[in-house]
Each structure stands twice: as structure tokens, then as C-alpha cells.
């Protein structure tokens, strides 16, 4: 009996020793003077509302345990769920947001009001909708090994980028490293999460290239689910998860986002406090700190010039001498501070201070700062602290070049002959209103088939003579709808059934809209399939389940449809 006990104790001791051996180095605890105007938090967190393991309150309590001031919940959705108003739980400011699936990857959208229709489809359209609804969006996990989830639409005008995503980072590790991580997790969870991070070289290069064109806010997404499982398109029924790992607390302790507010939070008015936090995030006054390496740490980065100071995230106009000053606190032996100019390190310091001059006559450049920690995990090592850029000397972009020159000619589409095309479960009617002898407005009233989205659609279509759009560079029309919605404008080559489309926003105020032929994207055809304009024989206005809920009804008015061009 006693012998068995001894064996057991020996086994337990052995196990503990192995665990300790396999666990990563404990984080270095730094001491820094408190500053009420800086708040720490997490953005990109999933709860039970989508595929996370905990309730919003569980997440808030975990954030409180990890010492965070705010947490932004970003459950998967289409923006039609009314966001829960900001509130304080256990002293943590909880802000509701949404992660939207686009055809070009996931888009984490913050600060938008409830959407009047489903936000989905092409990235450019979702970005346009999020912006119209007052929101700010972040291209999620560009490093995801799952191609269909990673962000791919680099020309689109998204507002921010995840330079790091904790849920993607572990997926490229070898199985042995993951087993080792699993054993070490019980001793040092946050350190284990950090140990699986690397420097995401491709994404950082991409970010540095993007910010030469325009400001793009960089931050690390926790993408916390508190469960580990096969990652796919999220579905309400996903249930094959087994491991409740890593916990919200461990993820929140692995790294945090430090946001410079300029003034302390009220801690009483959650609406005002949420506006302050989101405002600072939009402005780029946000720094990622890998706390499980060492923390807390505080980065300050500003540009001084005639006329004042520009903080992190800002733009300094051309033609002024600029002094860039970066400081990293607290001082820690071995820790380094790097100043990057257009992605290349141009100054290093070991005392946590850098001052760098950018002369008025120098070429425009983007500067940002990284803190480096000796022995930081990863190959190449993950940067310990990552701030946002200051853009210096760039001329503000002129009003964007118009996609289309003024039309020189227009050819009206047939006034008569419009008809309905619809899914068998949809109920659609089409009524003409004769406005003038040459102009008839068509009113489409529709009810999409109920049930799960299964290709329900309603469309009004007209046949056009061959060659109708051959010389055109656009389709123009006047359109309005009973309620805000998106309509897919399509052209079709009847013989092949191939269609090309552009989704447009339609509202109750009638607007004249033009879609450029070269902006059309193929539907039901391979991307890049050449569009033979001479063969186009139908024009369609389509309402489908991309943006419209099954079972819903509505009305669209379309008139003055024409092909037009700016050439001869
Ligand atoms: Zn995602
Ligand atoms: Zn996510």
C-alpha cells in the first residue's frame, strides 16, 4: 500500500518536473507607473452568441481577472442583430461588435449601428455598408492558413488590419510543438499562447506597404473562443468542439491592446466611454503588447513640428521639419526599441528612447515603432510591442479619380418587355407606370421564399438586342426601394447562362446610378472569365439571399435603364 503511494508520489513529481521543463519561460513582470488615460483591452472575442464557449458576462469576468479595462465582443453575424449597448461588468467596459463574412475574408466591424439588411457579399460592398452605418472595420486574420477565411482583398478600402491573430498563430505549428504546448499550458497558459507566436513577416510587409498609400490601423486580434476546434465558416449548429482551451483569461493575459484616450474613462457612462475607446482605435492610438513575454509596457510615439504635435496614427503634412520621438517604458535590461521607416529599421536603442529627424525636403515616409524583447518566442521572434504609424510628408489624396468620365452617348434599354424571373418559392409581381412615351418605371414587389437561404431570389429582367452593351462602359438607371437594401445588377449571356454582377445600395430616395462594366464580377462562372460584351442579351435587377433575408418582402422601382459610354 505504502509502496503504491510512493510510486504515485514519484509519478506526480515526475509529471510536475516534465511539465515545468516543457513549459515556456515565465513572463517578466515589469512595473510601470499607472496612467489613467491609457486603457488596456481585447478586440475580436467570440461568445456563445456565435462559436465561443462563454457568455458575454464570462468574457467580461475573464477580462477583469486579466486586468483589462475593456473588451470588444465580435460574434459572427451579418450586422442585423441589434448590438447590445455598451455596459460595465465587473469594472470592464463591454462593447458589442460583429465579425462579418465577406467573399474576400472576415471583416471585424466596430461601432456600427444595426444594419437594415444582411451585410455580406463582396468586401468592397461590405466595407461600404459598414462605413455608411458609422462603423470601422478590420481585415481579420490575413495569416489564417485557411484560405477562405483569411482576408484577401487588398485593394479594398478597409480601415484596419490584424497584424497578429492568436487563433491563426498556432495553426502553423508542428504537432510536437502543440503537444508540448498542451502540457505546458497547465502551468503557464499565457506564456504558452505567446510561445506559439512568430513574427508574421508577410502581413507586416503588407501593412507597411498599405500605409504608404493611406492610414491603416494595425492591431492584434485575440480571436478568443475559449475552445479549440476545427475552424470553418461559422455555422449556428457547429458543435464538434472538444477542448475548452485556451481559456479567455489565458488569451487575455497573453497580449493586450493599449489604447491612448487622452483622458481617463468616466467608468460611469458606458456610452461615452465606448465612444472614447472606439474613437482612439479608429485614430490609430493603439499599441499591441505581448504581456506574456514581459509587461506591462507603455509606448509613446509622436511627431513634433511647426504647428504642434501629431500622435501615433496621424499624418504630418509635407514641407515641415519633423522630430519623431519614441519612448518605451519601463526601462528593462536587454529590451530594445526599433524605429522603422517604410518597414526598415533605421534607429535602435536599448535605453527605451529614440529621437529621429525627418527633414522637410525628405521624401515622404511612414514611421512606426517596435519593442523587441531578448529571447522572445517564434521564428523569427514575435515583436514584443507594436505601435501604429505616423505618416510624414504625404500629400493628402486628391478627390478620388472618377471611375467613369461623363457619358457622351446613351442608348435606352427597351421600355417594354420587362418580365419576372424568380425562384419557385418566391412571389414576385411587376407593374409598369408610364411616365412619358419613352420612359416607363417598373415596380417590382417581391417576397422571397421562406426557410434557410437556398438560392431564393426575385428578379426583373429585360432582353436587349445583340450588341446593346458592346460599346458601353456603363449601365445607368434610376432606382429606389421601399427600404434600404442591396440590389444585384446583372448582365447575362443567354446562350451560356453566364452572368456578371455589381451589387448596389438602394434607398427610398430615388438616385441615378451607374455601374462600370469593368467593375462587374462574374457570378456562376470562373473568376477571370472574359466578358464578351457583344453577346450580352439580358439585363437583370436581382434581389437574393446574399443581402436579403428569406421570407422578407419589399419593393424596388427602376426606370431609365440605358447603356452609355464616354467614347465616340
Ligand atoms: Zn474570423
Ligand atoms: Zn473571429
What does this structure look like?
- The strands form five sheets. The chain has a 16-stranded mixed sheet that branches. Strands 23, 25, 26, 28, 31 and 34 form a six-stranded antiparallel sheet that branches. A six-stranded antiparallel sheet has the order 24-27-33-29-30-32, with no helix packed on it.
- With 568 residues, the chain is α+β, with helices and mostly antiparallel strands.
- The chain is built from nine helices and 34 strands.
- The protein folds into two domains: 24-297, TIM Barrel; 409-565, Jelly Rolls, CATH 2.60.120.430.
- Helix content is 17%, strand content 36%.
- The protein is globular and about 95 Å long.
- Helix 1 packs across helix 5 and helix 5 runs antiparallel to helix 6 (189-195).
- The site of one zinc ion has 4 residues, from loops.
| Unreliable residue runs | 232-238
Characterize the overall form: globular
Number of helices: 9
CATH H-level superfamily of the largest domain: Metal-dependent hydrolases
Mean pLDDT: 92
Bound small molecules, which ones? zinc ion
Estimate the helix proportion, in percent: 10-25%
Structural class: alpha+beta
Amino acid at each position: 500500500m505504502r509502496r503504491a503511494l510512493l510510486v504515485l508520489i514519484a509519478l506526480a513529481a515526475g509529471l510536475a518536473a516534465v511539465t515545468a521543463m516543457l513549459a515556456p519561460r515565465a513572463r517578466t513582470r515589469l512595473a510601470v507607473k499607472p496612467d489613467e488615460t491609457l486603457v488596456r483591452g481585447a478586440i475580436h472575442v467570440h461568445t456563445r452568441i456565435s462559436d465561443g464557449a462563454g457568455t458575454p458576462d464570462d468574457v467580461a469576468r475573464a477580462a477583469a481577472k486579466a486586468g483589462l479595462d475593456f473588451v470588444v465582443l465580435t460574434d459572427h453575424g451579418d450586422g442585423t442583430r441589434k448590438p447590445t449597448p455598451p455596459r460595465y461588468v465587473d469594472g470592464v467596459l463591454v462593447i458589442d461588435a460583429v465579425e462579418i463574412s465577406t467573399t474576400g475574408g472576415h471583416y471585424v466591424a466596430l461601432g456600427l449601428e444595426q444594419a437594415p439588411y444582411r451585410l455580406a457579399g463582396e468586401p468592397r460592398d461590405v466595407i461600404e455598408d459598414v462605413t455608411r452605418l458609422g462603423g470601422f472595420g478590420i481585415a481579420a486574420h490575413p495569416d489564417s492558413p485557411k484560405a477562405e477565411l483569411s482576408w484577401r482583398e487588398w485593394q479594398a478600402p478597409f480601415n484596419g488590419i490584424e497584424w497578429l491573430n492568436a487563433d491563426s498563430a498556432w495553426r502553423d505549428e508542428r504537432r510536437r510543438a502543440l503537444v508540448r504546448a498542451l502540457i505546458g499550458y497547465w502551468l503557464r497558459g499565457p506564456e504558452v499562447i505567446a510561445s506559439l507566436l512568430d513574427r508574421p513577416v508577410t502581413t507586416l510587409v503588407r501593412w507597411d506597404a498599405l500605409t504608404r498609400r493611406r492610414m491603416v490601423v494595425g492591431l492584434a486580434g485575440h480571436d478568443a473562443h475559449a475552445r479549440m476546434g476545427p475552424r470553418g465558416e461559422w455555422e449556428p449548429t457547429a458543435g464538434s468542439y472538444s477542448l475548452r482551451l485556451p481559456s479567455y483569461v489565458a488569451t487575455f493575459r497573453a497580449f493586450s491592446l493599449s489604447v491612448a484616450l487622452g483622458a481617463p474613462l468616466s467608468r460611469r457612462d458606458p456610452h461615452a466611454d465606448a465612444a472614447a475607446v472606439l474613437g482612439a482605435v479608429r485614430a490609430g492610438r493603439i499599441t499591441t503588447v505581448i504581456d506574456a513575454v514581459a509587461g506591462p509596457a507603455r509606448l509613446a510615439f509622436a511627431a513634433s513640428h511647426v504647428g504642434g504635435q501629431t500622435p501615433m496614427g496621424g499624418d504630418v503634412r509635407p514641407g515641415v521639419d519633423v522630430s519623431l520621438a519614441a519612448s518605451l517604458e519601463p526601462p528593462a535590461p536587454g529590451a530594445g526599441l526599433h524605429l522603422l521607416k517604410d518597414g526598415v529599421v533605421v534607429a535602435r536603442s536599448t535605453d527605451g528612447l529614440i529621437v529621429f529627424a525627418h527633414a522637410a525636403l525628405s521624401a515622404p515616409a511612414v514611421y512606426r515603432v517596435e519593442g523587441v524583447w531578448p529571447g522572445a518566442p517564434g521564428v523569427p521572434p514575435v515583436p514584443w510591442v507594436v505601435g501604429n504609424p505616423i505618416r510624414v510628408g504625404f500629400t493628402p489624396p486628391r478627390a478620388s479619380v472618377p471611375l467613369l468620365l461623363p457619358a457622351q452617348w446613351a442608348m435606352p434599354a427597351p421600355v417594354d418587355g420587362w418580365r419576372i424571373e424568380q425562384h419557385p418559392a418566391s412571389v414576385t409581381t411587376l407593374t409598369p407606370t408610364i411616365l412619358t412615351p419613352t420612359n416607363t418605371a417598373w415596380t417590382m414587389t417581391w417576397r422571397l421564399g421562406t426557410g434557410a437561404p437556398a438560392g431564393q431570389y426575385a428578379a426583373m429582367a429585360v432582353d436587349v438586342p445583340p450588341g446593346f452593351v458592346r460599346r458601353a462602359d456603363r449601365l445607368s438607371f434610376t432606382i429606389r426601394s421601399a427600404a434600404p437594401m442591396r440590389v444585384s445588377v446583372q448582365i447575362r449571356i443567354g446562350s451560356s447562362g453566364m452572368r456578371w454582377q455589381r451589387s448596389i445600395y438602394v434607398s427610398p430616395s430615388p438616385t441615378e446610378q451607374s455601374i462600370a462594366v469593368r467593375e462587374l464580377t462574374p457570378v456562376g462562372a470562373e473568376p477571370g472569365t472574359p466578358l464578351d460584351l457583344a453577346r450580352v442579351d439580358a439585363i437583370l435587377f436581382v434581389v437574393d439571399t446574399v443581402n436579403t433575408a428569406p421570407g422578407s418582402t419589399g419593393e424596388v422601382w427602376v426606370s431609365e435603364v440605358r447603356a452609355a459610354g464616354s467614347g465616340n
